[in-house]
Design a protein that fits this description.
The chain has 483 residues and is mainly alpha-helical. Helices cover 75% and strands 0% of the residues. Helix 2 (44-65) runs antiparallel to helix 9 (209-222) and helix 12 (294-324) runs parallel beside helix 14. The longest helix is centred in the middle third of the chain and has 33 residues, at 253-285. The radius of gyration is 23 Å and the shape is globular. The two termini are 22 Å apart.
Length: 483
């Protein structure tokens, strides 16, 4: 049997021969299928655990994008241009992705409850302290510390859900978990702009989530369940060496291709989330019959982001669950179709901002709904093509690649392209509002091309997904106590 580099289990359980593997796999799948679609079998503690994870994910993304809702105020206070404004998010994401592999290794071997508690406490404390800092360099360093804290949570949380549930129940719980990303991002814009406007100081927007973080730490420590790794699948597999883990992940085509596709998603989401409100504001400001403020645009953009998440994430999970029964390759195909639909809607939205007041918001909503179709599905795919004791490492590896090549650089890259275009269009004078707008518009067009590339990677994933999932099912079956 091809186990794709999976190291033998160290227990005394004897592995069955190839002819028995198919039988063992069928028995395991039959056992799991009995609870696959039945939410009534989910216990109260399990529901509470998912609710806590969703709550923490919500404030995680609130904290991440609160600053984006008041970016123009931040730039004015520190006296920085678009490139330095994008660098703030890049520093955060770089710290986030660099520390993800460490937390992935720890998450596969030690208490996930303790690791997450310390991480949430770190990001909450550094966000709060950072709101009092007046020096841009020090403020940027604190944003990096926030990224370290968030890496500890984002790397581990999905694996807890995978260890509690299987099949469509897992897909539904992951959808609930991941819908908090766009909703939390939208709330971040709203909280940042509303709190900043109410207090007359953008820094107050950063002082909301730390208090929610303190509540989250208490819930993680004393309420959340931390299941055994592979519990839902009755897996008895033991952790292998980190070297074996990485080797197996790299040789997994479904995981690697979906990771490259998700990198494109991260690139687009990072650039749009950071620059979207400011870009739309610049376009609307040039229209004589439109009177709107930066805070108002951030609030509208936040509502659109939330609504797109509330619609797109559950829709993706529902379509994936419905289609995969008849078409086993439905998950990656659906993700690819979402990106290929989002690209033209995004392009039109960027083009029409200068001349229309409502059409850009509608088109951005459509683009974000299509983009959000993949959140829960990608997470599910990444988990079911990797064996249980390797999943935190796989999540960490995906975070590292997707952020390193995705949203770690996209806000900064868009800012740099924008500033370069400004200098080209206005070499000897202060850029006009038209130049400010056009330079950022041309820079954001990069995201539309990246979406198409991501769609292609997802469609390539469909070639291998069935084979790689079956390998994992067989590997679990031969090391499980099937009764």
């Amino acid at each position: 049997m091809d186990q794709s580099g999976i190291t033998p289990n160290t227990s005394n359980q004897q592995l069955v021969i190839n002819s028995d593997n198919d039988s063992a796999t069928a028995l395991l799948q039959e056992k799991q299928a009995r609870r696959r679609d039945n939410l009534r079998d989910v216990s109260l503690v399990e529901y509470m655990t998912v609710g806590i994870l969703c709550f923490v994910n919500l404030i995680n993304y609130m904290d991440r994008f609160t600053l984006a809702g008041v970016l123009s105020d931040v730039q004015d206070e520190f006296g920085i241009d678009n490139a330095m404004g994008g660098l703030l998010q890049t520093v955060f994401v770089v710290a986030y992705m660099v520390f993800a592999p460490l937390f992935g290794y720890l998450g596969d071997r030690y208490s996930r409850r303790i690791i997450m508690s310390y991480g949430v406490a770190l990001w909450s404390l550094t966000t709060f302290l950072g709101s009092f800092i007046d020096n841009f360099v020090v403020f940027t360093i604190f944003r990096g510390l926030v990224g370290i804290g968030e890496a500890s949570y984002s790397t581990i949380a999905p694996t807890i859900i995978s260890d509690l549930f299987v099949g469509n129940v897992r897909s539904k719980m992951l959808a609930f978990f991941y819908f908090a990303i766009p909703v939390g991002s939208g709330l971040g814009y709203i909280v940042g702009s509303v709190a900043g406007a109410a207090a007359g100081n953008w820094r107050w927007g950063l002082r909301i989530t730390p208090f929610l973080g303190a509540v989250a730490v208490a819930l993680i420590m004393w309420v959340m369940e931390d299941p055994k790794r592979g519990q839902a699948e009755d897996s008895q597999m033991k952790p292998s060496t980190y070297k074996d883990d990485i080797r197996s992940i790299i040789r997994n085509p479904s995981f690697m291709l979906s990771t490259l596709a998700f990198t494109c998603v991260a690139f687009v989401a990072g650039a749009l989330a950071w620059w979207g409100p400011q870009f739309i504001y610049l376009g609307l400001k040039m229209q004589e019959d439109v009177n709107i403020t930066q805070e108002r645009v951030s609030q509208i953009f936040g509502v659109i982001t939330m609504a797109a998440g509330l619609l797109g994430v559950p829709m993706g999970a529902w379509l994936g669950a419905a289609l995969v029964k008849r078409f086993p390759r439905a998950h990656p195909v659906l993700c690819g179709a979402g990106l290929l639909l989002s690209a033209p809607a995004m392009t039109l939205g960027l083009v029409l901002v200068e001349g229309y007041a409502y059409a850009p918001f509608v088109l951005m909503f459509i683009a974000e709904v299509a983009l959000n179709l993949n959140w829960a599905i990608v997470a599910d795919m990444s988990l079911y093509v990797v064996i249980p004791p390797r999943r935190s490492t796989a999540e960490a590896f995906q975070i590292l690649i997707s952020h390193m090549l995705g949203d770690a650089g996209s806000p900064y890259l868009v800012g740099v392209i924008s500033e370069s275009l400004k200098r080209s269009l206005s070499p000897e004078e202060q850029p006009s509002p038209q130049v400010e707008f056009s330079s950022l518009q041309y820079a954001l067009f990069v995201t539309c091309f990246v979406e198409v590339i991501g769609g292609i990677f997802f469609l390539l994933t469909a070639i291998y997904i069935v084979r790689d999932k079956l390998k994992v099912d067989r590997a679990i079956a031969v090391t499980s106590k099937i009764v």
